[in-house]
Specification:
Chain lengths: ~110, ~110
C-alpha cells in the first residue's frame, strides 16, 4: 500500500491498494481527534473520530491511529477506491470549549 | 432534517460593501462555528459559539462580526468587504461529544 511517514500535501494511490495519511497535532489538551473528507465543491464530511484516551479505532474500511507520545494521528484506508479521491483533513477538538481546529490537508488521488 | 443550511451559495461584493452570510441548523446543536477556506489551504476558524448568546473569536476574526440570538441561527457579518476576504466560507454545528461538527455546503464569496 501507499503510505507517508510525515505529512505530505499529496498522495497518489493505485486503486485497490491501502492508503495511509499522516497528521501531526499540537494541542495536548484536545479531547477528540477527527478525520474529515472534503470532495471538490463540498463541505468537509466526517469520516471517523477517536477519543484522546484511545490509540486505535476502526470503521468501515478506515482505521485511525493515535500516538500521543509523538502527537501523531494517521488514517488508514483499506482497498482504496476511486470514490476515495478527495482532500483529507485531520482536526482536533479542544475539551474546554469544543473548539474545532484543522490541520493541513492531504489530497488523495486514486489511479485506475 | 436539512442539517446545516448556508445562504447564499455564491456572492460577489464590491470593496467596502457589507453583507451577512446566513447559517441555520435544525439539529438543536449547541456549538456553531464559521470557517474560511482559501485555495490550497485548510480551514481557519473565524468565530465560534458555545450556545445562544455566547460567541468568541477564532484565529482570523478581524473584519467579521457574529451574533447568536437563537440556537438555530449563527449569521456572519462582513462589515466592509475587502479583496482579502475572497474565500469560501463554511458554517458548522455540533451537539458535542464524538462525531465532531456537521458542515454546510459553503458560500463562495468574491470581493472585487
Amino acid at each position: 500500500g501507499e503510505s507517508v511517514g510525515l505529512h505530505l500535501p499529496t498522495l497518489s494511490v493505485q486503486e485497490g491498494d491501502n492508503s495511509i495519511i499522516n497528521c501531526a497535532y499540537s494541542n495536548s489538551a484536545s479531547d477528540y481527534f477527527i478525520w474529515y473528507k472534503q470532495e471538490s465543491g463540498k463541505g468537509p464530511q466526517f469520516i471517523i473520530d477517536i477519543r484522546s484516551n484511545m490509540d486505535k479505532r476502526q470503521g468501515q474500511r478506515v482505521t485511525v491511529l493515535l500516538n500521543k507520545t509523538v502527537k501523531h494521528l494517521s488514517l488508514q484506508i483499506a482497498a482504496t477506491q476511486p470514490g476515495d479521491s478527495a482532500v483529507y483533513f485531520c482536526a482536533e477538538i479542544r475539551s474546554n470549549d469544543y473548539k474545532l481546529s484543522f490541520g493541513a490537508g492531504t489530497t488523495v488521488t486514486v489511479r485506475a | 432534517n436539512a442539517g446545516v443550511t448556508q445562504t447564499p451559495k455564491f456572492q460577489v461584493l464590491k470593496t467596502g460593501q457589507s453583507m451577512t452570510l446566513q447559517c441555520a441548523q435544525d439539529m438543536n446543536h449547541e456549538y456553531m462555528s464559521w470557517y474560511r477556506q482559501d485555495p490550497g489551504m485548510g480551514l481557519r476558524l473565524i468565530h465560534y459559539s458555545v450556545g445562544a448568546g455566547i460567541t468568541d473569536q477564532g484565529e482570523v476574526p478581524n473584519g467579521y462580526n457574529v451574533s447568536r440570538s437563537t440556537t438555530e441561527d449563527f449569521p456572519l457579518r462582513l462589515l466592509s468587504a475587502a479583496p482579502s476576504q475572497t474565500s469560501v466560507y463554511f458554517c458548522a454545528s455540533s451537539s458535542g461529544g464524538g462525531r465532531g461538527y456537521t458542515f454546510g455546503s459553503g458560500t463562495r464569496l468574491t470581493v472585487v
